[in-house]
Structure formats: C-alpha cells, structure tokens
Amino acid sequence: MRPARILVAALAAATLVVTLGGCAAFDTARDIGRALGGGGSASSGGSSSGSAPGDNVVSDYEDSVDDLEVGDCFQDPDDDLFTSIVDCDTSHDNEVTALVTVGDEDAYPGDDEIATRSDDACLQALVDYDGLDYDSSSLDYSYFTPTRTIWRTGDHTTICFGYDVDYAPLDASFKGARI
Predict the structure, then answer these.
(1) In this structure, which of 15, 22, 144, 175 has its CB flanked by the most CB atoms within 10 Å?
(2) What is the DSSP string of 114-156?
(3) Where in this chain does the record put each Septum formation-related domain (predicted)?
C-alpha cells in the first residue's frame, strides 16, 4: 500500500475532516507529504498570503471545490477549500477523475463508511480515467466527500481527483495517458 493511501485511510479513521459548502476534504497526501518532509505550505498558487491559520484572509482563489467537474484541472485548494480551475495544458496540481454517488440512503452512513466508499470508488476512477493499473501508475488519488449536513439535502457526491505521486506539477491532462 502506498504511503499516500495509508495516510488517507488514517485520516479517514480519525475523521479529520475540513468542511465548507457541503464538502469535506481529507488533507491530501500531498499536504501531508509536504508537512512531514518540511516542504513548506500545503497551499499553492495564489493562496500564499503570509497569514497565520485562522486569520480572516480572503482567498486569492476564485473557484469553490464544489464547482469542480470531471476533467477539470486545478491547483491544491487553500485552507478555505477554494481553488483555481486552470487549463490542463498549464501547470496544475490535480485533475478531477470522477464525481461518484457514494450512497442513496436517507440516513448519513458515517464518516468512516463515506471514506471507505469514496476510497474504493476513487481508486477505480483513477484507473479508468488514466487507463493504467494503480500499482504501475505514477499517479495517486484523493477526494472531497459530502458532509453530514449536505447529505441531508440529497447531495451524496464525492469528487475524486488524481495527482502526480511525487507531487510534481502536471502540465497536461492525464486522461487516457496511461502514466
């Protein structure tokens, strides 16, 4: 199991969830890798403001993660879960591989169950989108999940996305690229 998958699973088990506008985000393996490796801020692009966490800072990013669609390329979200959706032919951190419905029951199945369903679905989405089996791929995946509150509104969608396993910027879409 890749370290990124172990970290995502550990985060899911601990239910460390950040919420905004109905989406919950597990810290991406990229964020954790940078923190553990001393790589600096987990945010990228225009979100660098020099402010401490918790300060009331307006994001330089313009797009909500809730607006992401399959095939969108985007920068790592900032602390407010806003991002910049960019052309896939320009430098970017992530690409949306699927929007997956992770349940149809009325009652929220719990954070751990949502994480399990999302992990399984997003792994398969990466394989289907890129075209190469996971163990041979130079890509990894993560996801944004619906919160308990948004679940009650009927939105049961997880946003799956892929990124370079070494956290290198991507400069093209990896759809069907088999990388």
Answers:
(1) 144
(2) HHHHHHHHHHHHHHHHH-S-GGG-SEEEEEEEE-HHHHHTT--
(3) 67-160
Strand-pair category, 94-101 with 157-164? antiparallel
Query: Cβ(143)–Cβ(111) under 8 Å?
Result: no
Residues whose CB is less than 8 angstroms from the CB of residue 136 and which lie 6 or more positions away in sequence, other chains included: none
Query: Which residues are CB-contacts of 137 (< 8 A; sequence separation ≥ 6)?
Result: 126, 127, 130, 165, 179
pLDDT single digits (tens) 130-166: 999 999 999 999 999 999 999 999 999 999 999 999 9
Provide the domain limits for residue 143: 3-39+61-164
Domain contains 170: no
Residue 17 lies in a domain: yes
Burial status of residue 154 (CB atoms within 10 A of its CB: 0-12, 13-18, 19 or more): exposed
In a domain, 94, yes or no: yes
H or E segment at 73? strand 73-74
pTM above 0.85, yes or no: no
Lookup: tokens for 154: 């009927």
What is the SS3 assignment for 43? coil
Mean pLDDT for 35-41 is 34
Question: Two tokens at 162?
Answer: 């892929």
DSSP three-state, residue 93: coil
